[in-house]
Write a structure and sequence with these properties.
Layout lengths: L1 H100 L2 H159 L1
Length: about 260
Amino acid sequence: MASLEALAKSYRVKKAEVAKLRRRSENNLKKTLSLKRRSSSGLVSIERKKESLARQISHVAQMLNQHHAQKESIARLKIAAEERLKREQDMQDSTRQQIDYGASEEKSAAQERLRFIDEKIAELHAGMKEREAAEARLGKQIVDLEKEKARLDAQLRKQAHAKPGLVEQLKLSEKAESILRPRVQSLIKREAFAAKTLQSMEQKLAKILAQRRNAKGKIAKKKTAKTRTKAKRAARKAKRKAPKKKTTKRRTAKRKSRSKSRR
């Protein structure tokens, strides 16, 4: 009985220790899994951001190429317009000389040509002003796009630098999980075995205690029965003695009555 109680006590202690280790390991496993989920989610988020940034950079690069092409086209048109303006200005000078020094019959035709040349020169100047404004506008847009591209490139580099750390974190969490998960399962089995063994021992102890209580009850019942038997015997003896006394008293009374009658 004493050894069984001691063994049950040791299994209670063992079960408590295993339960404590199991809870600690489960908490560590939960933290590891949470870290793993964050790392995995972070990597997925990085990939999505990288794809989004790559699309934005590609779009900005395409816009830059278009704006540079437009600016180069405007520059070529400006050069062509300047050359045409120079030719028109040369024709303007030549026509003015014809008007100033030419024959009188040629002056009216020269004046008509001069008016036409002046209109062309005015058109060329207006066109050049428009192209200069467009070139300035494109230059500002190109600067803004280059700044935007530099910002996006910096973000992409930042994401690329963050990825190795998350990859390493994910590897460490996966390694920790591979160690902790079997440990938790083993501790769960150990705790269940200790609980089952302890339950069996407690049942045996309860059975032994019940048997002892029954034995004590039987002894008590026997004692009570003996006491009752003794009491009954005493009562019977007392009963047997009681009528004799009564008869003696009656006989004595009868004798006395008889002696009185004789007198």
